[in-house]
Design goal:
alpha+beta; two-stranded antiparallel sheet
Length: 78
């Protein structure tokens, strides 16, 4: 079950950072490019597959990324 952004959320890639825009709620979230890269690279992967692709010491960073996405109600695990 992959992670999906809500239909009203869009990602904008900048030179140094990215921006996740919730167009329905008129909110935006600056995020590191690595978060956007993770979402794009693992678009069709379930949670265990995403975590398996990274070293265990990077798992807390992934936890933080998905906490920001879930807490901002930007997406969900299908």
């Amino acid at each position: 079950m992959p992670f999906r952004l809500h239909a009203s959320c869009t990602a904008v890639r900048g030179a140094r950072r990215a921006l996740l825009c919730d167009l329905q709620r008129n909110r935006y979230f600056p995020v590191p490019l690595s978060l956007l890269d993770t979402l794009e690279r693992h678009r069709d992967d379930d949670r265990p597959s995403v975590y398996a692709a990274y070293a265990p010491e990077e798992h807390p960073v992934l936890d933080e990324y998905f906490a920001v996405l879930g807490g901002g109600e930007l997406g969900w695990w299908c």
